[in-house]
Design brief:
Blueprint (H helix, E strand, L loop, with lengths): L3 H21 L5 E5 L4 E4 L8 E5 L4 E8 L2 E4 L8 E3 L3 E3 L5 E4 L4 E4 L8 E5 L4 E8 L2 E4 L7 E4 L3 E5 L13 H8 L2 E12 L8 E7 L2 E7 L11 E9 L10 E9 L2
Parallel strand pairs: 17-19
Antiparallel strand pairs: 1-4, 1-14, 2-3, 4-5, 5-13, 6-12, 7-8, 8-11, 9-10, 11-12, 15-16, 15-18, 16-17, 18-19
């Protein structure tokens, strides 16, 4: 027995050394893909934190760092993130707001008791997705993070496309929004609608399996039905909230092969 104990201890020590070395070899950020079905995204690096998103197999994410067995990722458009309305100055008739306080928490749900996804500075501009009571749900903001267990992500590339990185919303972009539109470049699945929500709208774009935009009809739109497409277009603001999702006017559309 005395001869076996050192051998076991050595094996454990070697495993720890190899694991730490593996972590040390990682360089961030990098591009990864979700390798399992229905993967939970959490507000912190353990299962006690709130679920703030659920990702399908094949979804690409930007990995920003690691804490033991958990990867810190950049939030996706579908990730839940909230800011208290009294910390925002919302531009009337637009989808944007300016942060009024400093080190304002972005929360995992519409509650001051929810986990913080990060803090943002005074003067930061955010895009409003939804307003409910004293809270606003916002689009992903630079400086916020989410978490996924390492078992559910697979390395893809050390090169992360600049278009995938969250940037700071600049005042010129805000002015474009206030003028009534926003230029975007998106990738998603084009799906026909069983019932048109408005005249000239018979398709929607789903992103990561969730409806995200209505699309204005263009000639030969049916050619792209049920396919993955790259779309460049203009988001038309919907101040009267007659539509469930934003309306996208297509400037260019192409198949993703």
């Amino acid at each position: 027995m005395l001869k076996i104990i050192p051998t076991i201890g050595s094996s454990v020590f070697l495993l720890i050394v190899l694991t730490v070395q593996g972590y040390a070899d990682e360089h961030f950020p990098f591009l990864a893909v979700v390798s399992k079905d229905s993967v939970n995204v959490r507000a912190g690096s353990n299962t006690n934190f709130e679920k703030i998103d659920k990702l399908d197999r094949g979804t690409k994410v930007v990995v920003l760092g690691r804490s033991y067995e958990w990867y810190k990722i950049q939030p996706l458009p579908t990730t839940k993130a909230y800011i208290r309305s009294d910390y925002l100055r919302i531009k009337e008739g637009s989808l944007v707001a300016e942060v009024l306080g400093d080190r304002v928490n972005v929360r995992a749900s519409a509650s001051s008791d929810a986990a913080s996804l990060g803090q943002i500075k005074k003067g930061t501009w955010v895009t409003i997705l939804e307003q409910a009571n004293a809270w606003c749900r916002v689009a992903p903001v630079a400086g916020t993070v989410a978490w996924v267990h390492q078992d559910f992500l697979k390395f893809v590339s050390a090169d992360v496309p600049a278009s995938m990185l969250i940037g700071h919303l600049k005042p010129p972009a805000v002015r474009a929004l206030e003028a009534g539109s926003l230029e975007v470049s998106l990738q998603g699945h084009l799906e026909p609608l069983s019932e048109a929500p408005a005249a000239g709208v018979h398709y929607q774009l789903t992103i990561d399996g969730k409806p995200a935009y209505y699309l204005q009809d263009i000639p030969q739109m049916s050619f792209f039905s049920h396919t993955v497409v790259d779309v460049k277009g203009t988001v038309i603001l919907n101040p009267h909230k007659k539509l469930t999702y934003p309306l996208l006017h297509i400037n260019k559309i192409s198949l993703v092969l």
